[in-house]
Amino acid sequence: MEKITETAYAKINLGLDVLGKRPDGYHEVCMVMQSVSLADTVTLEQHDGLCVLTGKEDLPGDNTNLAWKAAALMAERFNRKPDVKITLDKHIFMAAGLAGGSSDAAAVLRGLNRLWQLGLSAPQLEELAAQIGSDVPFCITGGTQLSEGRGEVLTPLPEPAGTVIVLAKPKIAVSTAWVYREFDALKAPQHPDVRLLAKALQKGSAKLPLPGMGNSLEGVTCAEYPEINTIKQKMLAAGADYALMSGSGPTVFAIVKDKQAAQKITEALQADGLETAIAHTVKRSVI
Prior knowledge:
Layout: E1 3-21, E2 27-46, E3 51-53, H1 66-77, E4 84-89, H2 100-115, H3 122-129, H4 136-141, E5 144-148, E6 153-156, E7 164-169, H5 176-185, H6 194-202, E8 214-215, H7 218-224, H8 227-237, E9 242-245, E10 252-256, H9 259-270, E11 275-280
């Protein structure tokens, strides 16, 4: 029986600016998104009916799971039975602002494209991905991309020079919907110059950190969860070149000089009981 295996990379936001709420209820955003090597492995194989195995008690494999939704969407679109078993080997922190669920869903779309021999292009897969969630289109090919609209309007960018990243997640759960509601109520929100960041990356082989990096949502989340700012300060004190919250949080990423520096920072953070990982930036994949 044929098995298809896909790698689902985590993402971080090098820059995230929220421009405002749209009539359709989504938010208009301008982001630079970056794949990093922390990843889930997604395996697909023929099965009697749709089955998603997560290996995690706190992650259901039902129709609330984005991997399940991706398979159901592909089956409906191409008039097939969703006769596939999907096994998720989870390594990306959950509910973390790293697009773990979105990346799994994108991996299912790519995997079914191969398993069912559909011959879809990356833009066609991205169009399907937009029906599942705002981060899913980026996760189809990943790499370094400017993301606009509600996240589905993508422009590939040259990747930054190879960068070592430390990721740290406190033991809290942050509601993305709550963060955006709080952001909407702000009188003077932060607006990092994400287009300046994209322009710096366009030059090619740019070394992070770069002007324009920042996160509109960080102030909201940090006000409610001050431990996020504490993590940032500890990273910087331990030698990080830069630290920023990813997405709506609560994960913080640090840009560091090398793996030795990353190890030092990780050891300092693990004493606080944080989930941590050392990763590096990942190139855009080809479909």
